[in-house]
């Protein structure tokens, strides 16, 4: 029975919405942050904080091993909202590094702790162009030009790290463009490829409880990417909202 969760990115946009759902469901949560101030806030709401940088492989492994989680959830990104277009190139590179090097460190840490399941946040706009609606078996756009190539390369490396690791039950959640509380976005520029941050969070909870290894599109509409697999297999509901539920 799953009881312990290690949540990398507990103070991020999705992490903040996911934490109360996990706690309410009865899970013990260890959450990462790089900030002592945010660590105190996590502790106040019932999360055991781990102050660690995902690029510090040794310290990260020690934190994961100490927590002995049944599941590791990777919700780390480095794309803060409100960043200027001129600075976006730098953040794209940093985000790709989290997805490649950071994910590799998390996988090694999970293996060292004996954890066999890992859930990662991916994106639903990295597919190679085609006519029609994207499904999970469609290829990623690995021949894209920059700056898209950096993003897609990071996504591909991250996904392969968890899906192809021997003994690892890897679950990839390909989110649409996030909007809602904590995202800085009321509605994304492409509303046909959107997902509310609360719906994104509950998809991770459903993956903990019901998910089988593999890839799942997580978008509110099926106009661009079809999320039927998430609905049918995970029991995911795109209309889920935390405030409406309580």
From TrEMBL:
Gene3D superfamilies, A to Z: NAD(P)-binding Rossmann-like Domain (3.40.50.720)
Domain NAD-dependent epimerase/dehydratase positions: 5-183
Record InterPro entries: Epimerase_deHydtase, NAD(P)-bd_dom_sf, NAD(P)-dependent_oxidoreduct
A cellular component annotation (GO) from this entry: cytoplasm
Leader peptide range in chain numbering: none
A GO term for molecular function: aldehyde dehydrogenase (NAD+) activity
Protein name: dTDP-glucose 4,6-dehydratase
Source organism of the structure: Phyllobacterium myrsinacearum
């Amino acid at each position: 029975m799953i009881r312990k969760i290690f949540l990398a990115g507990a103070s991020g946009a999705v992490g903040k919405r996911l934490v109360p759902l996990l706690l309410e469901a009865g899970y013990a949560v260890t959450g990462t942050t790089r900030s002592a101030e945010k660590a105190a806030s996590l502790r106040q709401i019932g999360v055991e904080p781990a102050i660690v940088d995902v690029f510090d492989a040794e310290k990260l492994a020690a934190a994961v091993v100490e927590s002995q989680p049944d599941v590791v959830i990777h919700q780390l990104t480095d794309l803060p909202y409100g960043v200027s277009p001129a600075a976006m190139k730098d953040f794209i590179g940093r985000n790709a590094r989290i997805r490649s090097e950071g994910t590799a460190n998390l996988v090694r840490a999970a293996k060292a702790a004996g954890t066999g399941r890992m859930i990662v946040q991916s994106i639903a706009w990295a597919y190679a162009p085609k006519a029609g609606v994207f499904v999970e078996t469609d290829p990623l756009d690995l021949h894209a030009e920059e700056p898209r190539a950096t993003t897609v390369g990071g996504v591909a490396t991250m996904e392969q790290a968890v899906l192809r690791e021997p003994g690892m039950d890897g679950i990839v959640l390909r989110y649409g463009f996030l909007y809602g509380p904590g995202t800085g976005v009321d509605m994304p520029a492409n509303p046909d490829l959107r997902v509310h941050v609360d719906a994104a969070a509950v998809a991770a909870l459903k993956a903990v409880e019901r998910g089988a290894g593999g890839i799942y599109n997580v978008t509110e509409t099926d106009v661009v990417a079809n999320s039927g697999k998430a609905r049918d297999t995970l029991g995911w509901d795109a209309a889920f909202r935390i405030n409406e539920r309580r």
